[in-house]
Amino acid sequence: MAAKKPTPKKPTAGKSKPASKKSNRSWGQKIKWFFIKAALWFFGISIVWVVILKYVPVFFTPLMVIRVIENKMSDKEVYFDHNWEPIEKISKNLQKAVIASEDGTFLYHNGFDFKALQKAYKSNERGRRIRGGSTISQQTAKNVFLWQGKSYFRKGLEAYFTVLIEIIWGKERIMEVYLNSIEMGDGVYGAYAATEYWYRRDASSLTPMQAAGIAAILPNPRKFKATGSSSYINRRKERIVREMRAVGKINYDGK
């Protein structure tokens, strides 16, 4: 009796592993390209944005919007004063004062003062608080393009925009935007509004002591006063005036 030939097994339905791998690879590729495209769009838009603001006045910043919302939510009076003033009409005394107070190496560094950053880091490790290590360039990048905060993500973006404005804007434009955008009182932004608010005079006519008064309150302009100041602010004013002499002639071209 002849042995029966074994019937070949029918392939079981649905061996889908290769398809699944292909599907996974497909999704992986899609996610990868999504992030690549998002990064390219971000770089492109951010560079164009920085180039535009090299020539166009900065009329508002994220901080200005945040302060208005904070006051609205707290049922406080919303006071807002900001006018753009070309750097040619801003007192050299005020320019020297903020350099002396906030960033003594502003005219020479490339956006970052690594010695100041190291000093701030060591001080924070010991639990002490001193003036932060951020340069005028970093503060400008944060004020104009970003939000307030201390996350590593925001710090990374701050470093990125600092590099961009140093390359595209240059020192004089950075100083111009800085002096037109920083908070110089509660609801007071920029040199024009600050000199009018604190001294009832034009931004071009500040004396060294008046300029030092504005620079002295920058660590906390909503708490401190440039006129009728506390003894702490008066001491800061005197120190800033002394350091302004060391700044000497301001040369933004670095020549």
Automatic annotation (TrEMBL):
Residue ranges constituting the Glycosyl transferase family domain according to the UniProt record = 81-244
Specify the protein's topology with respect to the membrane.
Single-pass membrane protein
The protein's UniProt keywords, in alphabetical order, are: Cell inner membrane, Cell membrane, Cell shape, Cell wall biogenesis/degradation, Glycosyltransferase, Membrane, Peptidoglycan synthesis, Transferase, Transmembrane, Transmembrane helix
Pathway involvement?
A: Cell wall biogenesis; peptidoglycan biosynthesis
Q: Which InterPro entries match?
A: Glyco_trans_51, Lysozyme-like_dom_sf, PBP_transglycosylase, Pep_trsgly
Region annotation (Disordered) ranges: 1-24
Coiled-coil regions listed: none
Q: Which domain of life is it from?
A: Bacteria
Catalysis: reaction(s): [GlcNAc-(1->4)-Mur2Ac(oyl-L-Ala-gamma-D-Glu-L-Lys-D-Ala-D-Ala)](n)-di-trans,octa-cis-undecaprenyl diphosphate + beta-D-GlcNAc-(1->4)-Mur2Ac(oyl-L-Ala-gamma-D-Glu-L-Lys-D-Ala-D-Ala)-di-trans,octa-cis-undecaprenyl diphosphate = [GlcNAc-(1->4)-Mur2Ac(oyl-L-Ala-gamma-D-Glu-L-Lys-D-Ala-D-Ala)](n+1)-di-trans,octa-cis-undecaprenyl diphosphate + di-trans,octa-cis-undecaprenyl diphosphate + H(+)
Where's it found, cell-wise? Cell membrane
Under Gene3D superfamilies, the record lists: Biosynthetic peptidoglycan transglycosylase-like
Q: Where are the transmembrane segments?
A: 34-56
Q: Which PANTHER family match?
A: BIOSYNTHETIC PEPTIDOGLYCAN TRANSGLYCOSYLASE, MONOFUNCTIONAL BIOSYNTHETIC PEPTIDOGLYCAN TRANSGLYCOSYLASE
Return the protein name. Answer: Biosynthetic peptidoglycan transglycosylase
